[in-house]
Amino acid sequence: MEKFKVLFVFPNTYLNIGIPQGIAILSACLKEAGFETDLFDYTFVKTEEIERSEERQNFLPTEYTLYDLVKDDPVVNLDEMFRNKIKDFKPDLIAVSVMSSTYDDGVKLLCNNRDSVNCPVVFGGVHATLDPKDTLNNDIVNYAIVGEGDEAIVDLANCLSRNTDPSNLDNLAYKDNDGNVVVNKLRSFVDLNTLPCPDWSIFDKRHFFRPFMGKIYTGSFYTMSRGCPYACNYCVNSTLKVIQKECGRYFRLQSAKKTISDLKQLKEKYGVNWIKFADDSIMSMSIEYLKELRDGLKELDIMFGCSVRPETTTDEKVSILKDMGCVAMSVGIESGNEELRKVQLGRRMSNEQIINAIKIMNDYDIRVSTFNMVGLPGEKRENVFETIELNRKLKVSSCNCYIVYPYPGTPIAIKYQTAYRNDNGEFIPVEEASTFRLSEMNPDEVEGLQKTFNLYLHLPKELWPVIELAEKDDADAGVILNSLNELTDKYYL
Ligand code: B12
Ligand code: SF4
Question: From 3.40.50.280, 3.30.70.360, 3.40.190.10, 1.10.620.20, which CATH number describes the 5-183 domain?
Fold first, then answer.
């Protein structure tokens, strides 16, 4: 008998590379249970000609870039490719993984190709957990999985392959005959140590492209924990924790042995030599755990980057991580104003703690990048400059700067009563976050500051009046912005 087949769909942004661990683990779970899987991934589907990107890279650029990865690809039609995939693979279940920002794209693909979709459709991922009602608000979606999908998708595939009714399955959400959304009870969190190694085989190998410090490495994301011990006001973790309160302790960590064994396999199979640990806060892990991890990972000789909370940073932990292969750390600063950071973002840490943490990282010669936000509730222009000044003082290599987006269900979205869909029912794009008007500045000013944030960081203060001209949204400002970016790349990075 033919195996029951599950086709994953990853509605990603073009060239936003990196393997989503959610799909990779679910695929491994399904294969372990005897099912067949495949993937339709937007990441390398070129729907229009692209120019060699002028995008500036964070660390020393490589000559071979993302553009070179895809320059010989033909321009294709996304819908046609999807229909061909369905024709070739003949799935029995289509499984779409979505964040809030990608849900509409997933639905659009299925609706555009309705005639080819001849099997049930399940949506999962962070958006399905945050808002199952919204997820099921299109008749093309038959089921949503709320919370963890590792066991739920196997149960669903089992039911469907035996033609039995899945409607009692834990974690399942569906619409009953009256059109009401039913969300079943959630099962306990899965024991992470029992999960198979993520299945990277279904992904385009170009996802492994990792340029760093002028060289190209091979690797992708890997997570060894789920959840986060903190609860920042703008982060979905605060909400996911509440939704899944009946499932067990929210922050979970797999054994060091499991991480070592998985990374060994990924190294053997794909030649991995660079990993980005996508765990929310690596230094929340104990010294003993980190030491065990170091002892096992050291011999694999894998370089890695990770995210850290400043107040968990200690000399001893950084020294262990460095010894383990850490070369880059990302630190969430978010705002240089302690009051805004504490009251609006729920991040209780002082500037002093941030400065000390980054000093330790610098002492160990670890590349530091920071995460920052503009457009915070109550934020004024001078507060943005407090954030810029803090970063300047820290001499960080690069800053990521985002405009605050009140994601569904987050404390910030609830407090300011923001809706993430516009009057036409469309998701308000992340690029239009300034239109939420949370700060004391107007949206143009917020956008201007976001796009010039790194210029204010790197260029001498004498040039700040020129940078201010580049903040505007017109052709002249565009020319100034490009020149300043070139100047920064050439002389100040
Ligand atoms: C790695 C990562 C990325 C990677 C890979 C994305 C991915 N899908 O994995 C990249 C770089 C592409 C990325 C980009 C972005 N990301 Co991101 N990312 C993460 C991060 C740090 C880890 C994801 C992960 O591996 N988790 C571990 C896996 C195991 O969990 P999981 O994905 O949730 O999967 C489980 C369940 O959700 C479910 N499941 C997942 N898929 C499916 C599918 C089906 C069919 C089923 C049944 C179940 C199911 O089962 C899985 C196992 O239990 C998370 C934070 C986090 N800790 O989750 C943010 C996070 C997902 N990202 C987020 C955001 C905002 C973004 C960006 C919009 C950022 C930006 N401003 O550009 C972009 C959007 C990109 C785009 N496509 O347009 C938000 C999403 C918020 C929201 N409401 O949607 C998160 C939650 C961060 C946060 N704390 O706010 N991201
Ligand atoms: S520390 Fe990071 S992942 Fe954890 S709640 Fe805060 S923003 Fe979210």
Answer: 3.40.50.280
